[in-house]
Amino acid sequence: MEEKCSRDKTGALGLAHTNKQPSSLSFPDTSTSTLTTSTLTHQHQHEPTGSGASVEQNCAEDLLSETSSDMETDPPLRHSIAQWATEFQVKHNAVSALLGILGEHGHSELPKTAKTLLNTCESVEHGLKSGMQYVYLGCKDQLLKHLKMYPQQVISELDFIDISLNIDGLPLFKSSKDTLWPVLCQLNLSPPTVFPLALCFGLSKPSNLDFLDDVVGDLRSILENGLEADSGLIRVKLRCITCDAPAKALVKSIRLCTGYYGCDKCTQKGLWDGHRVIYPEITNLTLRTDASFRDQSQEEHHLQSVVSPICHLPTNMIEHFPIDYMHQCCLGVMRKLILLWVRGPQADCRLGKLRRSALNFWSLESAFPMCLQGNQEVWRTLTDGRPQN
After folding, report:
1. Per-domain boundaries in the chain
2. Residue ranges with strand state E in the chain
3. Long-range contacts: 311-316, Cβ < 8 Å, 24+?
4. Alpha-carbon distance 15 to 53, whole Å?
5. Nearest Cα to Cα of residue 285 among 270, 265, 301, 266
6. Engineered SS bond to 130: which of 91, 199, 206, 380, CB 3.0-4.6 Å?
């Protein structure tokens, strides 16, 4: 006599016999809910010495064992979504929106936010350095973490990984003096990824350069010995260290650009023209080199009390500190030229009102960053305080 183990739509298990119908078996809700993912059919040959209870028990054990094996082989949906979001660098707001849609369509077991899905750390241990609250995230850990976001094929085809550093301070609020000084690293891949290595928080800029010690120590080891990853040893090169003028003077432990020996590209002494320090010489200049900087051949250029920790890195202290394009060109030279043309004191350089009105400054809008496009306040200086139509 054949007995068939089957399950109805509600997930309950029962036995269908050719000659008689036994009472159906019921299991706890927890096991029943896990068995609704597939329909399993088992056929057993009836043995004369067996009983209906033993057949039912065998059917139940087979169903539970096969279901548990399926759960072990198939990764959970939560893990798959987290891996997808990490691999393709999906923004957290997009992941949270996707989780909300899935939750409305029967996946209530999923978390509601990307922070919960990716186990984003909410609190970290911090100490005190350079007169500020200090958090060090680790160069090696951060590099490996963000390298995993790229396809393995991209990483395996690279001879080396190119990185850049940025050190600068930024105010957090307009109503307070709270300042954040992050040490940022950028992976110069496609697309580039920016992430912090260390964070300093306080009421002013760092009192010294101790906050760079951990970053410099670990980064020096990585640049010299490479980075151990799952795919093998990866060589790392430092492309540049970008800072604005005040941050560059702090990090390199040199005079500010407003000082007589503040130029970080040549050794000429500045002149005071009654309003500011200028550097009029443009020919026959003695350029600074990495060797002359490390030897401090021009003592007036350096702060004698402090030696920059960056000097311990295998990097060029002159060439690897590029000029701050935004402040010196866009907000410096270009701003001075525009003000000279519009409001300059010299009549031979200043544009007349008719000529200014004939110029359509809004035609330049498409060449500016998106954050400035459509912002009429940017152009008030050029239009006598009135936006142009």
Report:
1. 2-73, 77-117, 127-243, 326-383
2. 2-7, 13-17, 42-45, 127-129, 132-136, 161-167, 170-171, 179-187, 193-202, 227-229, 232-234, 236-242, 271-272, 277-278
3. 312/216, 312/217, 312/220, 313/216, 313/219, 313/220, 313/223, 313/238, 314/220, 314/223, 314/224, 314/238, 315/238, 315/241, 316/290
4. 10
5. 266
6. 206
Q: What distance in Å separates the CA atoms of residue 154 and residue 236, rounded to the nearest whole number?
A: 15
Tens digit of each residue's pLDDT (9 = 90 or more) over 21-78 = 444 444 444 433 333 434 434 444 444 444 445 555 555 555 445 444 444 434 588 8
Task: Convert 35-45 to b/e letters by CB count within 10 Å (16 or more is b).
Answer: beeeebeeebe
Residue 191: asked if its preceding bond is cis (omega within 30°), the reply is yes
Best CA proximity match to 215, nearest among 182, 187, 242: 182
Instruction: Give CA separation, 295 vs 196, 213, 310, 338, in Å.
Output: 31, 21, 14, 41
pLDDT for 332:
78
Cβ neighbours for 22, distance < 8 A, ≥ 6 positions apart: 15, 52, 56
Residue 136 vs residue 370, higher pLDDT = 136
User: What are the distances in angstroms from CA 303 to CA 249, 255, 258, 281?
Assistant: 10, 7, 14, 24
Tokens of 61: 């054990």
> In residues, how long is the chain?
389
d(CA 168, CA 111): 36
Task: Quote the mean pLDDT of the chain.
Answer: 78
Burial class (CB in 10 A: 0-12, 13-18, 19+), 60: middle
Check residue 89 and report its DSSP letter.
T
